[in-house]
Design a protein that fits this description.
Helices cover about 40% and strands about 20% of the residues. It is of the alpha/beta class and about 475 residues long. The strands form four sheets. It has a seven-stranded mixed beta sheet, sandwiched between helices. A six-stranded mixed beta sheet has the order 7-6-5-8-9-17, sandwiched between helices. The protein has a three-stranded antiparallel beta sheet with strand order 3-4-18, with no helix packed on it. The longest helix has 21 residues, at about 90-110. The structure holds nicotinamide-adenine-dinucleotide (NAD). Nicotinamide-adenine-dinucleotide (NAD) binds near residues 145, 232, 249, 445 and 450. Keywords: Oxidoreductase.
Length: about 475
Amino acid sequence: MTDYSALLAGYTGFEKGLDVSNPATGASLGTVKDWSEEEVTSAIADAAETFKEWSQRTAKDRAAVLRRWFNLINENAEALAHIITAECGKPLAEARGEVAYGASFVEWFAEEGKRIYGDIVPTHATDKRIIVMKQAIGVVSAITPWNFPVAMITRKVAPAIAAGCTALIKPAEATPLSAYALEKLAIEAGMPKGVFTVVSTTDPAGIGKILTTHPTIRKISFTGSTAVGKLLLAQGAGTVKKASMELGGNAPFIVFDDADIDAAVAGAMVSKYRNAGQTCVCANRFFVQEGVYDEFVEKFTAAIKGLKVGDGAVDGTTVGPLINEAAVDKVAGLVDSAKKEGATVTLGGNRHDAGPNFFEPTVLTGVTSDMEIASSEIFGPIAPIFKFKDEDDVVRQANDTPYGLCAYFYSHNLGRVWRVAEGLEYGMVGINEGIISTELAPFGGVKESGLGREGSRYGIDDYVEIKYCLMGGI
Ligand code: NAD
């Protein structure tokens, strides 16, 4: 067990505050500060003050600080991974992957900040010039979920900070420790006070209201459920704040008759069972064509039987706990209603004896689109499998949801690959791939899955304003 206490020195040990516990064991991990409304308001003022200085630095200066932060995250990767596993439950190997993935955004945007180019537009009059510049948007508030407690923060704040913004980060109640560890490393990297400030709270609605309505905040960046995203958008509307929203999903995973079934099973395993099924891009509905249905179900079920459920800190664990008992109750309820509606449990289906926050990896067959589970974001280790006849029908079913984050399909028919990729109403599509996220590509959804994109060269656009200047008298 790697000792991570140095990364949290000064951040835990509060007598009264937000208690953090390990979802696998129930063990207490410490108590962090419960920020008051006055303290958050004062932190917003600090961020605004720092913005004046930070936004005036050269992009190269800011990049140097971000690069030091990136190096420090890597040097402390093992400790950070242990913090993630302790507070969020995912297996250590996945937590290590998350740290590398989270750090990759810091490295990418350190460089991308140097390429926020403006334009000189051809003029409409010979004595005038048209200039377009891009400027940092101002103070940003970032509200993040518990399922990727490091990466969901860096994916937002790295572009913000690289562009010259300053940020307040409100992590989920379950996972403030990763956020504070990142803050500690940011300070060590040379970020001035007010550039990256974590505000943990037992009152997300109250503090969230300040972070979405305070006139100094110019932009909200949120990752979480669609329901909360809608509320925050409405709150931000009063002061017309810009907003990036990374919301829920209901990903279809389609296997056509012409697919490589072994590859589809491998893709299904990583897409479904990463983080015990608790990712926004997890396959949520498996559509398998009639001709390969039996083969896919048999091979997928055999692979799932090989998963090892338990404490993510224990060697060999591949599926950790769900985040809390409420999440287990929700998943158990979805399985029960699917059974009542006529689905068959062909594997699992029950709470797991590893502890109150565990649920068995489960396969449901005979699932149809009218069942409750078909329209719910499962966020757990349940694989509902639907049988389909033809391409048009499956694309229609796949799109029959208000969500539009990520879709997957497996096929080796070239024409079908184009048709289906174009027909799916999703922001991201994995074609013969079950895991698609990288800092190099634009991550984000359409419909009720969100607004804006994170990562890639597009990711920095959300943190700059476009200013047009017309210069006359030339
Ligand atoms: P959640 O919406 O309950 O919470 C997310 C964050 O919002 C937390 O920090 C929480 O404290 C805060 N929050 C809750 N109520 C609030 C309020 N009234 N005002 C201000 N803040 C409030 O979501 P969750 O359960 O933490 O995360 C799971 C959800 O996140 C899923 O729907 C998942 O799909 C989504 N998610 C999306 C992406 C993406 O990139 N699209 C990535 C990860 C998770």
